[in-house]
Design a protein that fits this description.
InterPro entries: IsopentenylPP_isomerase_typ1, NUDIX_hydrolase-like_dom_sf, NUDIX_hydrolase_dom. This protein is an alpha+beta fold. The chain is built from 9 helices and 10 strands.
């Protein structure tokens, strides 16, 4: 009885004051993986993002979508203030996780990740699936990164093997206000200015987006119409401080 009550109290403390819709999403089951991106099990989104578990090595699968319009401009979003991790941060088009469902655990051709990307583009930005068909995505590579939450509350963080997905389509954006505060398209010069502003402390940028921008994006962007030249499915780029 004491153990149950103590656990309930700890759980209540973790979610106290958080947005109820975002708290409900913590129940979703993510895919646990080892350092080589081999599935090892499943657990809740909450467990995956608890810093206590991350510091013990818990690692899950994720994806980051970079959607460009036909003019070659990149769609960015500013995460809603309701988000539990990295609220108010600017980031790439859409960032999330494949879930423990029959459609999204399927690994052949990374189809599960692509289906998850299509689902989340609809959920976060209201982009209809027919505007972002599965065969329109280009899976480029994977990055392995880890970060504590900002603002650092000592409770939440990220530790992911992140599939980088590019897609070039003109789409209709109808943002979900609980997920997205605002959005904008940028060219490379405008993105550089945004990153400069973040370095001055004038705006916030998610750590995974910063890693991609600083290490890969200029090259990938220059090959936007010939992405086969920059695809690397064999490498998992290790971008954690302890690797």
């Amino acid at each position: 009885m004491f153990i149950t009550s103590h656990f309930a109290k700890m759980t209540d403390e973790l979610i106290s004051g958080l947005d109820t819709t975002q708290v409900k999403l913590l129940e979703e089951e993510c895919i646990l993986v080892d350092n080589d991106d081999q599935t090892t099990g499943f657990t809740s989104k909450k467990n995956c993002h608890l810093l206590e578990n991350i510091n013990k090595g818990m690692l899950h699968r994720a994806f980051s979508v970079f959607l460009f319009n036909q003019q070659g401009e990149l769609l960015l979003q500013q995460r809603a203030d309701a988000k539990i991790t990295f609220p108010g941060h600017w980031t790439n088009t859409c960032c999330s996780h494949p879930l423990n469902t029959p459609a999204e655990v399927e690994e052949e051709g990374s189809i599960g990740v692509l289906r998850a990307a299509q689902r989340k583009l609809k959920h976060e930005l209201g982009i209809e699936p027919e505007q972002v068909p599965i065969n329109g995505f280009h899976y480029l590579t994977r990055i392995h990164y880890k970060s504590e939450n900002v603002p650092n509350d000592g409770r939440w963080g990220e530790h992911e093997i992140d599939y980088i997905l590019f897609i070039k389509r003109d789409v209709t954006v109808v943002p979900n206000g609980n997920e997205v505060k605002t959005h904008r398209y940028v060219n490379q010069t405008q993105l550089n200015s945004l990153m400069d502003e973040s370095k001055k402390g004038n705006l916030l940028v998610t750590p995974w987006f910063r890693l991609v921008v600083e290490n890969f994006l200029p090259k990938w962007w220059s090959h936007l119409d010939n992405l086969s030249n920059v695809k690397d499915h064999k490498t998992i780029h290790r971008m954690t401080k302890d690797q």
